[in-house]
UniProtKB/TrEMBL annotation:
InterPro entries noted in UniProt: Sec1-like, Sec1-like_dom2, Sec1-like_sf
Family: Belongs to the STXBP/unc-18/SEC1 family.
Source species, domain of life: Eukaryota
Gene3D superfamilies: 3.40.50.1910
UniProt name for this protein: Vacuolar protein sorting-associated protein 45
GO annotation, biological process: vesicle-mediated transport
Length: 71
């Protein structure tokens, strides 16, 4: 089945959170495509500090396994 129409509404929900930069990208896409509306949501909105903490938390187990495996 081939869709002949482009979607008019797109909802993006980011589990783990979204950033202000991603919000700006969605804003710009909405400005460039007036016939389509993109809605961005997430479990949280990250700033640089909270994003860095999230990455550190998510990778801490991986880094520990890597360090243990190297010895």
């Amino acid at each position: 089945m081939v869709m002949s129409r482009r979607p008019q509404d797109v909802i993006i929900f980011m589990i783990g959170g979204t950033t202000y930069e991603e919000s700006l990208a969605v804003y710009n896409l909405n400005k460039q495509n007036p016939g389509m509306k993109i809605i961005l949501g997430g479990t949280t909105i990250h700033n640089f500090k909270s994003f860095a903490e999230e990455v550190h938390h998510a990778t801490s187990g991986i880094l520990m396994r890597y360090k243990i495996g190297k010895h």
